[in-house]
Structure formats: structure tokens, C-alpha cells
Known about the structure:
Elements: E1 2-3, H1 9-12, H2 34-39, H3 44-52, H4 55-65, H5 77-82, E2 94-99, H6 108-115, H7 117-131, E3 135-140, H8 145-160, E4 176-181, H9 191-198, E5 222-226, H10 227-239, H11 241-246, E6 257-263, E7 270-275, H12 280-287, E8 297-301, H13 321-325, E9 335-340, H14 345-359, H15 365-382, H16 390-400, H17 410-430
Helix pairs in contact: 3-7, 3-10, 4-7, 6-7, 6-8, 7-10, 14-15, 14-17, 15-16, 15-17, 16-17
Amino acid sequence: MTLTSFGPANLIKRxxxxxPLTWRLRxxxxxxxxxxYQAKNGYAAARKAFADMAQDDIVQTVKDAGLKGRGGAGFPxxxxxxxxxxxxxxxxxxxxCNADEMEPNTWKDRMLMEQLPHLxxxxxxxxxxxxxxxxxxxxxxxxxxxxxxxxxxxxxEAKAAGLLGKNILGxxxxxxxxxxxxxxxxxxxxxxxxINSLEGRRANPRSKPPFPAAVGVWGKPTCVNNVETLCNxxxxxxxxxxxxxxxxxxxxxxxxxxxxxxxxxxxxxxLWELPFGVTARELFEDYAGGxxxxxxxxxxxxxxxxxxxxxxxxxDAQMYAGGIxxxxxxMGTGLAMAVDNTVNMxxxxxxxxxxxxxxxxxxxxxxxxxxxxxxxxxxxxxNGEGREGDIETLLGLVGFLGPGKTFCAHAPGAVEPLGxxxxxxxxxxxxxxxxxxAGELTQVVSPTMVGA
Length: 452
């Protein structure tokens, strides 16, 4: 799989004006180390932020640019930064980079860390200056061993050049940055579970409020941002708000560009930096090249395993949060997966729900017990041993584990694809009900049973 390189020639020309995240990438896929990064205008934005901008002005610029979180939730970054305390007497603050990229079908942050490690470091340096944080951590998925090696080398290069450590750029500002590898848990993508894990605790989400901006790592104010989010910061500071907003397509409510991709049995699986507002059809046909010969598109997910399934007729939706929302699901990470005509949806969902059930932290009952229950029912349907009422029970679990019913967003994300799969492909689920057991009813989950 090649990153950011497939598609018609007129669609892949990258420049600083149109591709702020990827224009520095090397054609051979090797990392861009410090000398080359600085030759490509690297750390110019950091120098501008330190020399010419007040800390509050950096926060306001990011807010005005409309940058939103790129990890899937899409919370406005500048607003999140604005939640950090203004009290100057609080001199211990932390900046955390959420690099625990465990979402199935998603590998965008991996590309940035492996090939452009200094872009992330520069983004964190500017962010630390804005937030007055003296220490930062990159919480990295443990399986990303190449990313860890490249990030550690880049941190050492930046420190040797006076871009990290004490008195950065002669400003009197200190910022230390560390790469911390996790043990490989999906739940660490939730920011408070990440904080617990960083502290050496069990990776359970925390009750909110208090939010991390008030009580985070070791009880101190903390800001958590995704890799791709932080990598957008240097370009915003260097080239300004109006330019950044102009990158998005007409109709998009999200600003800038986004790393988007397609996996599955498409001709050219890959990852591309595209403006918010492109249609999914453009991504699927012009970049991913459509389905391989002999396969047809049955369904697709717009942004990871935790997003609902859509049909081929939904490909004209624009790729931004509101655009995908109009067709009934979430954009998520923006890396889509194509499901071909040979895939049985019951088997696919059983596989997905097994993953989500295994990755549950077990803290709250609906998630801990509900997800394994869904796996048991899906396994029965997959093996042709289902009973009448099983599908209704699954739909009851979709409601029981939906938004607002569990301690964090793990379970709602887990059951969203299940609900959409039953909606669009119910006959495949009904086919799993054994004829000899058609008269046997299972206990169906109802709103009164779950206390809704």
C-alpha cells in the first residue's frame, strides 16, 4: 500500500499551498529528518509563534481557523485549548498527543509519525507555547515500533538543535517531550483512559467533570490532542486563518484538509490529503480507483470500524462531519472501508463485535455484558443456529448501548455498525435463524427491561 500517491496525475500534485500536511513527503517514503525538514520551511511557524505572537494569540488563531479534532470526535481545537486555566500561578501543565491509533482500518497517524516526525514535534512545540505546558508526551500505540524509533530520533535531533528543552529559541520557555509506548488497548483512545494508562493505572475512562483541562495527568491541567490535529497547527500559524479556511470545498462546515483513505478490495487502496467537502464518490472512484475486477461495492464505512455502514447510493455525500451526518452516520477518522459483494454481513459484524467486546475496559455493565451478548447472538446467526427474536434482541442492545447509556463512547461506537448492518441487510441476519428453531423465542431486550 502506498500513501498519498495514487490517483490521476492532476489530483496528486502536492504543494505547500494546497497540501499542508503532506507536501514535504519524500517520494521514496523515507523519513524527513531535521535538515531536510528545515530546508522545507520546517520550524518557521514555531519561530514565528515564539518571536511574533503572544500565547493567547496562538490560541485565538487556531480557534478562528476552525481546526477540529482529527481523531474522530471532531471537537473544536481552539475551544479545547481555551478550557486550560488562565491562572499563571499554575506552573505545571501537560500536553498529551493521542497517538494510540487502534481504530480498525485507520493508519493515517502512523504515516505522519513515520515519515514526518518533525511536523508533529513542531505542532506540539507551538501548542505547548500557547498552552503554557512545560512537558509533553506522545502516547504511542505499542505496535508502532517504526514510529517510535523515528519519533525518538526526531526528538533527539530537535533537542540538539535547541528546539526542545531549556530556553527554546532564546525565549526563556522550556518544553520537554517524551515518547511513551502503550500496551495496545483500544480504550486508550479515550483521553481519560489514556491519562490513567500514562500514570500507570488501569486504562479505565474517568468520570467527567472534572475534565482534563482542570484535572488531568497527576491532577494537573492537561490538554489531549490527536496526531493529525497537532500536525495542522504549524501551517495555520505560518499561513493564516483565511488561507486555511479557503482549502475546504464549498459547502463544507469543516475547515482545511483531511487525511482520507480507502481500504478493502479497491484497485488502489491508500491514503490521501484532500480538502474537506470532497465527495465519497470522488475518493472511491478517482483516488481508490473503484472496486477490483470481479467485485462490486456492497457497502462502505466512512471512517473506521466504529462508524455505521452506508450503501453505494450514499457515495455522493460530502466528506465532512455534517455531510456524512446527513446520510445517517459519522465521518470518524475519514479512512473508509469498502465491503465487497462476497462478504457476509453477519460474519463481518461478528468479527467486529468480537474486537469491541475484547477491547472493552469492563468498567460499566452495559458495555461489559452487552457486547459479549451481541457476539453470542451473532455467532449463532452466523452458524445458522439463531432463534426467532435474536434480531430484535440485537436491536435492543443497539439502543441499550447507545449514546448516553454507557460510561464512555466505546459501546455506542461498537454498536453503530451493528444497527446499520441490520437496517440495510436484515435478510442476511434472518437467514441465520434455524428452521427447526423458528418457533423458539429468545428473551428480547425491551426499553422497560433496561430501564430506559
